[in-house]
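forwarding from the other thread:

> can someone predict this with flavin-adenine dinucleotide?

sure thing
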Amino acid sequence: MTELAGFSGTVLTPGQDGYDDARRLWNAQHDRRPAVIAQVRSAADVAIAVRYGVENGLEIAVRGGSHSISGASSVDDGLMIDLTSLNGVSVDAEARLARVGGGALLRDLDGATQEHGLAVPAGVISHTGVGGLTLGGGMGWLTRKYGLSIDNLESVQLVSADGSILRAAEDENPDLFWGVRGGGGNFGVVTEFEFRLHEAGPMVHYGLQFWTVDQGAEVLRLARDLFATLPTDVNVVITALNAPPAPFVPEEMHFAPGYGLVIVGFGSPEEHAGVLEQIRTALPPIFEFATPMPYVALQQSLDEPNAWGHYSYEKGSYLEELTDGAIEVITQQVAQKVSPMSATLIYRLDKAYSGVDDDATAFGGERSDRFALFIVGHTAVPELLAAEQQWVRGFWEALQPHTVGIGSYVNGMTESDDDRIKASYGPKYERLQQIKAKYDPDNVFHRNQNIKPA
Ligand code: FAD
């Protein structure tokens, strides 16, 4: 094999110290053994690693935060390009811009930007990678207010399949810039993201209201109606999950299945309290918890139940409306999960999300108001995962008559199913294929929601 001449990072092969740690992925279901792990320190290292992989006929996997449920970021017998050390974040508070390494985690991004009271809209769990999350879209608490992560991207630096280091922005390689905003890791390895920043925090308002599993239909109908009057400064995620054994949860409700609304306010305390009161009046919760908290604490509040080392399987859908029919299916299916760790999450996509033109980015999903629903099977031991997979698949099938189609948010796909990927991108798929053919004609980067080169 050719050496990685000029490489400044660390190269690990099976049996070496650090190899087993480096190959570990968030979803413990995947136990992959790359032939080589190239832990890069710079864009030049990435270029060397990509050329090395191609010249030696090694299948390439790119590891950002390693949270793809499919385990796309590692590969048996191939080359894992590990971006973990490319996690620097520099903030220009005056220009409201941040430069973020391709391997940074959300917590790196939030920590650095919050020093200036600024933020990038991203996901809700701080150990997720900025890389994979952004390239597929990126949705979270700030999506109603400021759009998806990609809607706030100014430029990227990317290493393409031939090892070239390129910049993509509106004024340079605009086709590539369009493609990376939603097209995943298909076009190359992003070594740096440049984001526009917004004011958020440092303190935000948190609220959790919780109901029993029997009240599901009422909670979902209430949530559906709530969004029509909800201020843009407030976001609500609908969840069906088991109550945590937290101090604010009555003991008889510890671990009990139920429905929760998580209500996060970026505006005034009065506005947030008003939304909580509106919900409380419509349907008094079994218990509730409300407190101001720092934005960085909000971003870490779900980290622990979603920690590394569990077994996961997920499928998602878009719904234009939470119709009575959809609510009937959701409540029937939620009651059938087996693992207490499994959950159903519904994110609202409207306001700033819907203010972006469909064709402005490659995002897999139309920009009309909608819900993104995720059915997550999650277990502590591998033996239980098969039952949860069956539950997730059955739930997803049963919901089909009420969804936008078989497409969904590409970052929530466990399997790389060509028909679902095409359905998610819709008419944009052909344009993505042209861009793929230009920047990666041999499909070097295929461990992702793969777009086949035209
Ligand atoms: P990885 O597995 O490292 O990468 C995912 C894919 O992107 C792989 O194909 C990889 O090759 C590629 N990739 C990663 N970095 C780069 C890069 N720099 N250049 C090129 N390709 C790259 N999504 C949301 O939008 N909002 C959420 O709130 C949210 N919460 C989540 C919580 C958990 C616990 C989990 C597991 C996932 C969550 N997701 C969320 C989904 C998440 O966006 C995807 O799992 C995403 O793929 C994770 O990116 P990563 O870099 O951590 O993963």
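The two ends are 31 Å apart (CA to CA). thats all i got for now
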